[in-house]
Write a structure and sequence with these properties.
The chain has 4 helices and 4 strands; from the N terminus they run βαββαααβ. By secondary structure, it is of the alpha+beta class. The chain has one domain (2-94): Alpha-Beta Plaits (2-Layer Sandwich). It has a 4-stranded antiparallel β-sheet with strand order 2-3-1-4. The radius of gyration is 13 Å and the shape is globular.
């Protein structure tokens, strides 16, 4: 079963986040993942949504998604995302 990593974030430091973006795609691809949605504009239809940025990354399985998140390669850059954004990151099983 596929798994999706969903990030909902507000960027606080554009330069630092830009550095993160330079490196993150390569770490994702190593685990069979690919970005299926990434935007700076979100249209709120219902409820509350405090973040301006959303990214959805598809992986072939939850094991692959967790492998990416816990990988040495991603661990080397994770602080760039954590220190430049505020938000949430989740893994969702899907089809």
């Amino acid at each position: 079963m596929k798994a999706f990593v969903i990030a909902a974030e507000t960027v606080k430091d554009s330069a630092m986040f830009g550095e993160y973006r330079k490196h993150v795609v390569g770490t994702i691809e190593k685990f069979g993942g690919h970005v299926i949605a990434r935007t700076g504009e979100v249209s709120l239809l219902e409820g509350d949504w405090p973040h301006r940025r959303v990214a959805i990354i598809e992986f072939p399985s939850r094991k692959a998604a967790e492998g990416w998140y816990n990988s040495t390669e991603y661990r080397e850059i994770i602080a760039l995302r954590q220190n430049s954004t505020a938000g949430s990151l989740v893994i969702v099983d899907g089809t």
